[in-house]
Amino acid sequence: MFGTGLLKGLGVTLKHFTDTFTDDRRKEPSRYEGSIQIDDKRRIIDQPITQEGLLTIQYPEERRLLPERFRYIPMLIWDTEAGEDRCTACGICAKVCPPQCIWIVRDMDENGKPITRPAEFYIDVAVCMSCSFCTEFCPFDAIKMNHDYELAVYDRYPHLVYDKEELTVPVEYYAALWPTQYAAEEEVRAREKEEARRREEEKKKAAEAKAKAKEAGDGDAAKPRRTKEELDALKAQAAAKAAAAKAGDGGAAEAPAADDAEAAAKKARLEEMKRKAAEKAAQRKKESGG
Ligand code: SF4
Ligand code: SF4
Fold it and tell me: Is 60 helix (H, G, I), strand (E, B) or coil?
């Protein structure tokens, strides 16, 4: 029948109107079921399915409970256990950010060598479009999406250009906002840590086995090292031996010279004897009248 839908809709509105009054008369109105009281005035409400009457909330005193995957602008994670930023200043997030609203300055050591830590990190939150690309691409789980959407300020600059200090939150804050994602990531991190520990242990064992094998196969390696005194004594011994050898070589060189002189003297004596024998023979021949 014409107008039935219209009447039905008006009936629903009227029911909400009356339910709001009856619900508000209860000690705890149904919309506050499971709500979290922040302070005297503010509370976070998770509109329950049993809610009757009023569907709007009284912002800013009342706020909606945000779903875990709600995202607004990024935040940088401070690793409380390690006492350092998770960010290594690799710059991947800045590269993939579609509106290019991330600036990073890498830190340096005392020698001017770049180190894996950001000295400065800025995000222009007025430009950020909450796409979450930066968090998706970060290899170190160092940047995550914050739930904080109350960023209103009077001046855009410098208030909406967040620096490292404004962006950094402890890992516990992230764990409270994103409990499911945090638990899944921690599981992966624990697995990777265990794997790294196992690899390290294997490496250590292999190095020990290699050292043992070298010790067994190489006798010299097992020999104790000589002291300086022992080395000096060995040097002195070697020098003495060399000097003795040299002296021995000199005598040997003189021996042939002595032999030659003796042979020459012998030869001279022989010549003399021959000459005297020839003279005697000539004398005898003369005396015999021949
Ligand atoms: S937040 Fe992640 S991706 Fe961005 S610079 Fe730091 S470590 Fe790299
Ligand atoms: S959420 Fe998107 S726009 Fe915002 S900083 Fe990350 S990558 Fe850039």
Answer: coil
Max CA distance (Å), the chain: 197
- Amino acid identity, position 186: E
Percent of the chain with pLDDT over 70: 92
CA 32 – CA 52 distance, rounded (Å):
11
Number of domains in the chain: 3
Whether 222 has a pLDDT exceeding 60, the answer reads: no
Find out whether the beta carbon of 130 lies less than 6 Å from any atom of ligand 2: yes
- The range of the structural domain enclosing residue 148 comes to 74-172
Asked if residue 160 belongs to a domain, the reply is yes
Judge if the beta carbon of residue 97 lies within 6 A of ligand 2: yes
Nearest ligand to the CA of 128 is 2
Q: What's the distance, Cα to Cα, between the start and end of the chain in Å? A: 194
Phi first, then psi: what are they for 101, rounded to 5°? -105, 15
